[in-house]
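Researcher: I'd like a candidate sequence for this fold, 22 residues long. If you have to choose between options at a position, lean toward the conservative one.
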């Protein structure tokens, strides 16, 4: 569960920074 939350946060952050990281 924690991983899923982290993924969602990373994805949101990636989109915010406009960086296709994950």
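Model: Candidate sequence:
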């Amino acid at each position: 569960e924690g991983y899923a939350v982290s993924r969602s946060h990373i994805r949101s952050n990636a989109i915010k920074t406009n960086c296709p990281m994950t």
